[in-house]
Each structure stands twice: as structure tokens, then as C-alpha cells.
Amino acid sequence: MSTHAWVLATGTARLAGAVALARTVSDEVTVVAVGPGPLADAAALAGVDRVLRAVTEDGQPAEALALQVAGAAAAAAPRLLVSTDEPAARALLGAAAARTGAAALSGVLALRADGDALVADRAALDGAVVQTVSTRGPLAAQVTVEDLTPAAGAAAPITDLALAGSPDVRVVGREAAGTGTGLHDAARVVSVGRGLRAREDLALVEELARALGAEIGCSMPVADDLGWVAKERYVGRSGQKIAPRLYLALGISGMPQHLEGVRDAKVVAAVNTDPDAPVFRAADFGIVGDLYEVVPALLAALSE
Amino acid sequence: MRAVVVYKWARDPGGATVRGDGSVEWRSPKLVAGEDDHAALAVARQVAETGGGQLVGLTVGDGDASWALARGVAEAVTVPDAPVQADQAATAAVLAAAVQASGGADVVLIGDAEEHAQVPTTLAGHLGVPALLGVLDATVVDGRVQVRRAVDGQVETLTVTGPVVLAVAAEGPEGRAPGMKELLAARKRPVTALAFADLDLAATAGLTETGTRLPEQGTARLFRGDPADTARELVAALRTEGVL
């Protein structure tokens, strides 16, 4: 069976990675670019065969077009629908899954064909296991992928989708979430979690941040339960999403909600007493140790 | 405005035990409220108060339906025999059919659970309404839903005319558990049971689970031993990477 995949895109973050994953099981990959006009031009360079363009009006979020895009998906009936975890792209995927009768999954890491079945490996139980599932019908897969730079090549042709009658959803305001912190643009971030035993011990973290020229972030319990760090410094799914060159996690267990906030960091390093802490699965480097012993040692090593 | 808040609708990862070979044992077949459910409920109460309407709880599967009734929701609808399914579109189809069977909704609020991230969006698709994710709060102003949500390091305010699904991600654990008085009052509140077989379900392709395994060992280079040595090793590695 020949497989045609649609990748539903509302931004370029991780788009090439999603396309590459779709390509592993598909003969033809189309990106449906829903957003401002230039998005389709960027999508055309992501290694795809075709781009369908749905341009949003000023103040119109991509979600407003989800039902119309889903109608187009039902007409085209692609075997595979893919999105990243970008919220608007997720919304498009769900609408399309419902209209095409596809099975739906999130956290998909890999896809393969097995005869006429599509087989998916997905992260489950907060990343503790990889679950394997298969379907003989259409599949909607929200994928977890790295960002890739697509190989240079000719731009794919762009066709406009004719859409009409979208629901009235409007963006009427925008404000910076992290007022006053330089976290979003920092090249280096030192982040602290429940491994910190007392508020006064933040001084140790602050000293390390100064030595590194880093901003301070934190995981949810430190901002919310304990109130030791300003909420604007919380890094995670409902907090800041950041892309520093270095993210150093101290005493952070690495729950998925937190790790979502740093998926685009260049290098992740972690200090945790538990060698099986989930944070080490996301890290490039780690020290198994107590942050109260390791941070002074890091300060010493940095000054050598 | 009629608001429906969905709770206790999927297995909570905390209820699983992972064995050494990566297979999974669920400690109980009963469902419990998910970690985002309290946040969805808080926003649902706000919508009901500002929209001047009814707030109904919706829950599926085995387990105690009174969780929302103990937290200010006056009535609930349950589908106790709905099966737990790997296919998130199938779960969404059950929820959508139950919303319709119980009288429809102007706003549906549901936890934005990472483990089941396609359920809120596909639920919206089955209902034929837009979905907004990452919602922080929502109110009704002049008959329209005004939503604040976190996106790309900003807080966006949107307005929606017409029905909508709002997926709310919790920023922390529930602040205050209900007391004995609320728990006892919950037992007296009406729960309407719907039979799974009676629901008008959208067809989905279905998924077969073939197993679970442990993830490949992370690529992290772990340094162990004396802190002075491990710190030196980490600093050297980060300098080599060019980030220091």
C-alpha cells in the first residue's frame, strides 16, 4: 500500500524532524502550512513533496482553521497525519483525526510499516516505557522529534487551500509572560528543583549562575509549591519554553512537563543523586551526586 | 452557557508499576482524577460563574464519580463501562458522544494531559468545534469566551464566539482537598450513568498494543565519583562542546 502523509504545521520548530519521521513510512509527504504567508515558503524547503497553504488573517490563530483543514484532510484521505507538539499544530491534528476516522497518538518516537499495518513506538508513563502499537487504518501521530536542518534542495510547489466559514476565534492581546527575567533569551540557564533543601540555599545556585553568566530557572515545585523562585522563572509546559546553549539542571527529577520547556536547548547537563532520574534521559552530560557537594566543586573547576 | 468539565477520563501514569523488563502492571483498574483535572475544574467554575449557566461533570470508566461533585459541581454524567483504550481518538469519541448525549455544551474543559495529548484536540474535532490548548484561565464576557493561554513565552488573550474545547494544563498540584462535609455532600448529588453500548460513537481506526519496553539508555555521559573530579570532567566536557 502506498502511503501518503500530511504534516500539519503552524510553525517551523521541529518541522523538518516531523517531515523526516513521516518520510520513513511514506511515499509522498505534503505539508499543510496554516499560518501567515511566509510559513508556506519555509515549509517548502523542509524536504517535502508538496505544500498546501492556508493563510491566517491578522489576529486569527491557526486553531480557527482547524475544522476547515480537517475537511480538506477528509477529502484527501492521507494514511498518515503528523504534527509536532506545538499547541496549534496539535489542534489541527485532533480535528483531522476526528474527520478522517484515524487512530490518534501522542509522544510518537518512531514509525515503521509491517505489511499493511503502521507500527508506532511512543513514549508512555512519563517516558518510563516505550509502548508499541499498530493500526491497519489511518493514523494521526503527534511526534516527539529533534529539530533537523533539511538538506538543501529545490522548494516544493505550493498550492492554496480554499477554506471558508471558520469559527470566530481572535487573538485580542499579547503580553510577555516572563516580565523582567532574561530567561527567554539567555545563552546559559542554571535551573533548580526539589533537590534544593531550603530557600537560603538559593545563594549557592545564584553564585554558580553568576560564575557561568547564566540566568536562573526552576522546576514547578520550586516556583509554585514552595514559592522560592519567581513563577516567571518556571521552565516547563505551562511556563517558559527556552532554547539556551547550555541548560544545567540541579536537583531536578526531570518530569516530562519540565523537560518540554528545554527540548530545544543545545546542551543539557544535570546533577542528581539518582542515576535513574528521568532528567538523565534528556541530558547530554550528568553528574551523579549531591548538588550541595557538586556545585562548590563546579565553582572551583570553573575558576581553574 | 452550559459548561462541561471532563475528569477522571484516562489512566494516570502514577498508577503504573514498570517491571524490570519494561512490562507494565496497573495497580488498579479504577481510574482516578488526572493531575490536570483540578486546573480544568477551576477554569470551568470560572466559566460557569461568569457565563451564568450550568456546570456539569463528565467522567468515564470505573472508579469514584464523586471527585468533581465534592468540588462544587452540582451534577455529573458517567460512562462507567467505557473501556480504557490505547487509541486517543477512541477515548475522545466516547467523551464527545457522552457530551452530546447529556445535552451538549457551549464550553468543554478538560485537562491538557501530556500522556494523552491528542484526546482534547480530537474531542473538539468530534464535536466540530475549535480547541485551544495551554489555557491558563477563561471568563465569559458579553456572551463570548475570553481565554488567556501561554504560548511561546507569551500570554495570549483570545476571544471565541460559539462553542469551544479548552484544555487546561495545571501549574501545580491541587491546593486544597475537600473536607468531610464536601465529601458527604457529594454522595447526595445526582450522577447520571450512560451505557457505553448506547452511545453514538464516531468510528476510529483502532489501535492494537503489542507491548512495552524500557527506553534505550539515555545518551547522557554520566560522571560518578568524587565531586571535585566529576565537576572537572563536566566543565571540560562543556568547554569541548563550546557552551562554556
From TrEMBL, chain A:
Keywords: FAD, Flavoprotein, Transport. Binds 1 FAD per dimer. Residues 183-262 form the Electron transfer flavoprotein alpha subunit C-terminal domain. SUPFAM superfamilies: Adenine nucleotide alpha hydrolases-like (SSF52402), DHS-like NAD/FAD-binding domain (SSF52467). It comes from the Bacteria. The keyword Flavoprotein applies. Its cofactor is FAD. FAD binds at residues 194, 251-258, 272. One of its GO terms (biological process) is fatty acid beta-oxidation using acyl-CoA dehydrogenase. Residues 18-161 form the Electron transfer flavoprotein alpha/beta-subunit N-terminal domain. InterPro entries: DHS-like_NAD/FAD-binding_dom (IPR029035), ETF_a/b_N (IPR014730), ETF_a/FixB (IPR001308), ETF_asu_C (IPR014731), Rossmann-like_a/b/a_fold (IPR014729). GO terms for molecular function: electron transfer activity; flavin adenine dinucleotide binding. The electron transfer flavoprotein serves as a specific electron acceptor for other dehydrogenases. It transfers the electrons to the main respiratory chain via ETF-ubiquinone oxidoreductase (ETF dehydrogenase). Heterodimer of an alpha and a beta subunit. Belongs to the ETF alpha-subunit/FixB family. PANTHER family: ELECTRON TRANSFER FLAVOPROTEIN ALPHA, ELECTRON TRANSFER FLAVOPROTEIN, SUBUNIT ALPHA (ETFA). This is Electron transfer flavoprotein subunit alpha. It comes from Cellulomonas soli.
UniProtKB/TrEMBL annotation, chain B:
Belongs to the ETF beta-subunit/FixA family. GO terms for cellular component: cytosol. Keywords: Electron transport, Transport. PROSITE patterns: INTEIN_ENDONUCLEASE. The electron transfer flavoprotein serves as a specific electron acceptor for other dehydrogenases. It transfers the electrons to the main respiratory chain via ETF-ubiquinone oxidoreductase (ETF dehydrogenase). Pfam families: ETF. This is DOD-type homing endonuclease domain-containing protein. PANTHER family: ELECTRON TRANSFER FLAVOPROTEIN BETA-SUBUNIT (PTHR21294), ELECTRON TRANSFER FLAVOPROTEIN SUBUNIT BETA (PTHR21294:SF8). It comes from Cellulomonas soli. Heterodimer of an alpha and a beta subunit. Signal peptide: none annotated. Residues 55-129 form the DOD-type homing endonuclease domain. Gene3D superfamilies: HUPs. GO terms for molecular function: electron transfer activity; endonuclease activity. It comes from the Bacteria. Its cofactor is FAD.
